[in-house]
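Practice problem: HTH-type transcriptional regulator CueR
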Amino acid sequence: MNISDVAKKTGLTSKAIRFYEEKGVVTPPLRSDNGYRRYSAHHLDELNLLRQARQVGFTLDECRELVTLFNDPTRHSADVKARTLQKAAEIATHIDELQAMRMRLLALADACPGDENAECPIINNLAGCCGRKEGRAD
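Answer key — structure tokens:
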């Protein structure tokens, strides 16, 4: 298969496939006599794994590890499970951080009258100038 065939079958762009190859995330394809990349069904499997791993939040380095594990017949599913649970925990932490950010934003918006006046508790709070008198240097 050529790169455009692989792109259609994996849902990745040709540019993304070349990027993943350049970064050493996937096994480099063989080259034909004219220099074109020639992909096998195994490349499709690697690229599908990569695409789906990226969709659930794995980083490029983590995807490289997963592809390495995919290609290792002596891998242990416990290693894959541990990495997956670690990623799930990282996402849970990120969700908690995003929820805290959202709550802070809602509290800031709630404190603001949202009228035509220049005084804005949101700006004051974000700038750290709450409670200071105008013109006063601290």
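Discussion: The chain has a mean pLDDT of 92. Students who identified this feature from the tokens alone can consider the problem solved.
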